[in-house]
Amino acid sequence: MKTKRAFILVYVFNVICYQMIAQTSFTSGLLPKIVVSNKLSDNIKLINSIESRQQLWEHQPDNDLSYDYLLTDFTNILSFKLSADKVFNIGYLLRIEEDELIHRSIFQHSIAQQLENLRVAHRFVTDQTFSRKESPEFRLRYRFTVELPFNGYRVDSGEFYIKINNEYLGSYQGSNADLEIRIIPFIGYAVNPKSKLEIGPDYRLSQLLESGTKNRLWLSFNYYYAMDWLKSIKNEN
Questions:
Q1: How does pLDDT run across 211-221, given as a tens digit for each residue?
Q2: Fewer CB within 10 Å: C terminus or N terminus of the chain?
Q3: What's the CA gap between 47 and 53, in Å, rounded?
Q4: Can you give the pLDDT at residue 6?
Q5: Helices then strands, each counted (H, E), the chain
Q6: Please, what sign has the CA dihedral across residues 225, 107, 118, 179?
Q7: Residue 236: which residues within 8 A CB-CB, separation 6 or more?
């Protein structure tokens, strides 16, 4: 099993390195994110997140370091647990980019499956983005996720784990269509039953339907914290 894990990591990073070498220009920077979920009932959760995108390099990797704040996303999602392995989410994203406010509606359906010490998940998303300066953008997304602990069959407190996301995103705006591929391998650490940390590269290859492709490589830092409003109310009573 350790050999399999090493092979997966080597393969993912080889793909990232190959794409970076094959393309002469790319954008890279930081992508920190905080996610706080609150359990409202046995089957309903409210998930709030804030994510900031900050650029460090553009065009050539040997350019001087140049910091540039790009945008911040505020996302609110209402999550409904349909069964033990299926979840439906509906949400809203507010993006602050320079002096503009961008609005996005989100609909998600997720399916997860536990296979011995391997957790596999599929996420299907459709979202619609609206702003004053551009035509509405409509996107369809599919994400495949594999998560496995370094030790044992489950991720317990104080343990590390590997999570690899592979996402395909099709978009349509005005008369233009685009296809984007994302590869996001994470090293995660379960701090305790309520919180966990993840860090890893977020590589995005887009404009695949055009003559020139666009490469973006972000270093992602994710912090997750889970609250239980329902349990707190029961304890107070």
A1: 678 899 999 99
A2: C
A3: 20
A4: 44
A5: 2, 11
A6: negative
A7: none
What three-state secondary structure class fits 149?
strand
Blockwise average pLDDT, block size 10, the chain, 237 residues: 49 51 70 96 95 86 73 98 96 95 98 90 98 95 96 88 97 92 97 96 87 87 89 62
Q: What is the 3-state secondary structure (H, E, C) of 198-225?
A: EEEEEEEEECCCCCCCEEEEEEEEEEEE
The H or E element that residue 8 is part of is: helix 2-22
Please give the Cα distance from 138 to 128 (Å, whole number). Answer: 5
What does the pLDDT look like over 13-49, one tens digit per residue?
555 545 544 545 678 999 999 999 999 998 999 999 9
Query: Is the Cβ–Cβ distance between 105 and 128 less than 8 Å?
Result: yes
Whether 155 and 161 have beta carbons less than 8 Å apart is answered as yes
**Domains of the chain, each with CATH number or no CATH:** 2-236 (2.40.128)
Give the closest residue to 13 by CA, choosing from 168, 221, 223, 217. Answer: 217
Q: pTM for this one?
A: 0.84
E strand or H helix at 10: helix 2-22
Q: DSSP string of 23-75?
A: -S-EEEEEEEEEEEEEE-SSSEEEEEEEEEEEEEEEE-TTSPP--EEEEEEEE
- The pair phi, psi for residue 31, each rounded to 5°, is -140, 70
